Automatic annotation (TrEMBL):
Chain positions covered by the region annotation Disordered: 250-275
One annotated GO biological process: hydrogen peroxide catabolic process
GO MF assignments: heme binding; L-ascorbate peroxidase activity; metal ion binding
Species classification: Eukaryota, Viridiplantae, Streptophyta, Embryophyta, Tracheophyta
InterPro entries recorded: Ccp1-like, Haem_peroxidase, Haem_peroxidase_sf, Peroxidase_I, Peroxidases_heam-ligand_BS
Cofactor: heme b
Annotated protein name in UniProt: L-ascorbate peroxidase
Stretches with biased composition (Basic and acidic residues): 253-269
Amino acid sequence: MTGSLHLAQPMASVSRGPVVATSRLIPSSASRIKLSICSSSLCGLPSCLKCIRSAPLVSHFFFPYERRSICVAKSGFSTVSVPKFFVSDPEQLKSAKEDIIEILRTTFCHPIMVRLGWHDAGTYDKNKEEWPQRGGANGSLRFEVELKHGANAGLVNALKLLQPIKDKYSGVTYADLFQLASATAIEEAGGPKIPMKYGRVDVSGPEQCPEEGRLPDAGPPSPAGHLRDVFYRMGLNDKEIVALSGAHTLGRSRPERSGWGKPETKYTKDGPGAPGGQSWTVQWLKFDNSYFKDIKERKDEDLLVLPTDAVLFEDPSFKIYAEKYAEDQEAFFQDYAEAHAKLSNLGAKFDPPQGFSLGEVPVPERFVAANYSSEKRELSESMKQKIRAEYEALGGSPDKPLPSNYFLNIIIVIGVLALLTSLLGN
């Protein structure tokens, strides 16, 4: 257990052995080509471009956006190549959420699910622009090389709990599954509803995992400075640091994994789930503002207070928010929900680019020519997004013209010459 991101340990004892990532490639059963064709009359491209783009050979070479599933061997987590632009299926995500709720209610694994999502997203570095080098919520935590980072001790148990769901729903990325489990755990523990969006793309291999050392430590020499170094690198501020720290209201720290906490206390010796560890709060499976109250009072020796916890009431800037949340749970819930959603999006690449929510799944707008032929009408936002995506896929952007398509120009010239020849011959 290290620091504010490393907040929880598994609730249920998992008997299976350690997970070992392999490099074996497993064929996907869900492989298919993702293509979309815009109306040439709308985007200003010649009508024959539609035919050219939809041709299988041309599509293969110029639009290789393939969708595949990730398969897992019985012996452990198998890492297969994942192409860019893997889209999570909204309906499968909804079903996966129902399965996650069932796991939460039977294994009491809320804290470790929160921690899993946080640690996948918490490697984000705002100073790096390239994906996936910038880290963040990209599913890289499923690989053994990252699981072995000191801050991720024990998270293999969360992966074991989620892997059957991933096997069941191949149309869901690991990146989305981790964040879905994290947000669902907060809500199921009595916390606020998180305004989540989905559509995260997975990294393809362990070579794309971030280097170790991006997650916070629980006992640094300068706790306030350390928290700011780590969270500012992610683009988060003091209010968000304190709000996110409040998630320690869930879970326990286990000394055999983190080096912090007691082996057991009167609050943890009987479980639920696997007994042991030391919790920050008495009801460590209930999400509320008890963390701030207990840290402020510090009257119970059976409750854990890390250096990074205590500093929230010692640092002048942090203290403003910590005092507020100790008095006002509603304010804490509101700020926490916003901070959690922001954290879950850090570094992620979305497909579609704007992402989607489970409550408002985007339905592609059907193009009806008659709607735009008789009079001037404003295009809907969804149609604008579709046209923009098609334009950018061909190399265009708002600040640069679409590059010339010489192949298309040659076809047009040949067609004009053929027509002229025919007319002159007649």
